[in-house]
Amino acid sequence: MFPPVLTQTIGRLVGKASPARLVFAALTVLFLVAIDAGAQSAALEPSALSRVPLADAGDGLYWQQLRITLGQADEASSEAIRIDLPALLELHDGDGDGALFDEVRIVYRAVDAELPRFETSTKTTAKTIVLSSRARAAAGGQVYVQFPSRSAASSSPSATSTVYQAIEFADPLETDLTEQLPN
Q1: What is the pLDDT of residue 37?
Q2: Comparing 55-59, 83-87, 110-114, which segment has the lowest mean pLDDT?
Q3: Which residues make Cβ contacts (< 8 Å) with residue 133, sequence separation at least 6?
Q4: Residue 124: CA atoms inside 13 Å, Cβ hemisphere, count?
Q5: Distance between CA atoms of 109 and 144, rounded to whole angstroms?
Q6: Distances (CA, A) of 79 to 119, 141, 169
Q7: In this structure, are residues 120 and 130 in contact, taking their beta carbons and an 8 Å threshold?
Q8: Residue 167: pLDDT band by 50, 70, 90 thresholds?
Q9: In angstroms, how far is the first alpha carbon of the chain from the final one?
Q10: How many other CB atoms sit within 10 Å of the CB of residue 109?
Q11: Which of residues 86 and 52 earns the better pLDDT score?
């Protein structure tokens, strides 16, 4: 779980057994466990891309970019990440071919040399983006999801929220993010 150098350093500190060193070693381990426990997050980035009118959205097209930072090393999966769009928005079919998976662009920022090859699944719908991966992604890896969106035809005229309902992860070590990312 910890790098060998850190394990050896903690071992040397504990081996000398002074109370101050024991406390320092214990705090170091607690701090590292807290960091290792997972800190996945999602954010709209940059904020200029996330501007969607909350009222009178009309038929305008808007671009969204999500940055999802993985808290754990995620195994490959046919449904690695699932993103439920806000009630006010839906994925736009720009080329009119009826397929929505080809509208989503994905960029992965690696932590090391891993190459999970995220791609948009054919299970993607107007309200849900599904990403698959072919190989393991590292903890701390960042998945950028960029897509065109428009006002959902089924949204009520009084809809005032563009909060993402859920971002779910297939890997059981990740914690799903719910009701995130207000515009």
Answers
A1: 39
A2: 55-59
A3: 74, 76, 77, 80, 116, 117, 118, 119
A4: 26
A5: 8
A6: 10, 17, 8
A7: yes
A8: confident
A9: 37
A10: 11
A11: 86
Whether this model's pTM surpasses 0.85: no
User: Which run of H or of E encompasses 78?
Assistant: strand 77-84
- Is 83 a residue whose pLDDT tops 70? yes
Distance CA 132, CA 122 (A): 9
Tokens of 13: 């500190």
Residues 6+ apart with CB under 8 A from 124: 91, 100, 101, 104, 130
- Please report, as a single letter, which amino acid is at residue 27: L
Measured distance CA(138)–CA(122) in Å, rounded? 24
Residue type, 111: V
Burial state string for 88-108 with b = 16 or more CB within 10 A and e = fewer than 16: bbbbbeeeeeeebbebbebeb
Q: Which residue has the tokens 């671009």?
A: 63
DSSP track, 120-175: E-TT--SSEEEEEESS-B-TT-EEEEEEEEEE-TTS-TT-----EEEEEESSTTSP
Residue 98, Ramachandran bin (φ over 0: left; ψ between -120 and 50: alpha; else beta):
left
Q: How far is CA 137 from CA 29, 31, 40, 111, 153, in A?
A: 25, 24, 13, 9, 36
